[in-house]
Amino acid sequence: MAENQIQLQTRDQAQSTQFPDKLMPAIDETAKMDCASAPIVKTSRIRPSKVEWPTIGLFAAVYTSWILLLIGHSHISYWLLFPVMALLVTLHSSLQHEALHGHPFRNCIANMALAGMPIGIFIPYLRFKSLHLRHHCDENLTDPYDDPETFYRARGDWQALSWPMQRILMINNTLLGRLTIGPALSLFGFVRKELSIVLGAKSHAKRVLVAWGWHGLGLCLVLPVLYAADFPIWLYFAAVAYPGMSILMLRTFAEHEAAIGGQPKTAIVDASPFFGLLFLNNNLHCVHHSFPTAPWYRLPALYRENFLQTEQHPPYYAIKGYGSLFAKFAVRMRQQVPHPFRRLNTSTKNRSKS
Prior knowledge:
The chain is mainly alpha-helical. The chain has one domain (22-353). It has helices spanning 11-18, 25-36, 53-71, 78-100, 108-115, 125-135, 155-160, 163-172, 175-180, 182-199, 205-228, 233-252, 273-278, 285-290, 299-308, 322-329, 348-353, and strands spanning 7-10, 40-43, 256-257, 265-269, 316-319. The strands form 2 sheets. The chain has a 3-stranded mixed β-sheet with strand order 3-4-5. The protein has a two-stranded antiparallel ribbon with strand order 1-2. Strand 3 and strand 4 (265-269) form a beta hairpin. Helix 2 runs parallel beside helix 6 (125-135) and helix 3 (53-71) runs antiparallel to helix 4 (78-100). The chain is globular, with a radius of gyration of 20 Å.
């Protein structure tokens, strides 16, 4: 039990855990610098085996199923084809999340080669990796500026928005809103920030361009496959890639919560085996943040050992399942858009002047 307890490591120790020595500098420097920006990173002593066959098997199953469905799509009802392919895109996104955390290989180039194929179309793997590792600087969780995955806004930015835009963001904080307009809003904000980095010639603009360059090469493989299979590209974007991202947002909708007077809380969702596999046990999200180097198939055991049998664990909140989450927040906001206690007197405008 003692070997599985959470420990805090210094910045250098955390980097050595997350990043092997043999890195491709032009690719992974962004992720190294982003993760290094935090003074302390939470991690664990758990290190998986050098090659993780369950993860490799899932990658093989996803890519094989994707190819077979494209080959036979003309003989499958769209009512079956589109949901199954969207679920494959969601599962592939979950596998990409595993890869950026150092799975299934200890070599980041091998992981990128395995996970970087953009069948989800929209987000470059290397940008996902860089931003997500910043998200794991847990002292910044839910911060409107320092957590790249939060949906909270600084109060000054919120007050500067037009009334229609405020209402759109409020709708996005309902579960139905997140599943429908959430992907579009996220992609719009993501692309806008990427353009501001490149056009503003910021220090890491070159690394952003490198990430998009690799993504473009991946699309040069994916899009011709769609064309050769006579699968309309616009239909794939609208009926497969976008719904795949939408399903993923079911998981991210309730992952973190700002807790006034304390550390932000992270969710543990009592999900069915179906969602457990689809999200690779990231419904146990607090466990993942406590043990970010643990592979997905170890998370249930870590939950039982470190959360059920001890009172000394990070603050989390329990959700009985995604069905209960939908019943409670389908048309009701789960939380307010402006952050309740961070960045109360800050806006993008006055922050840029400081």
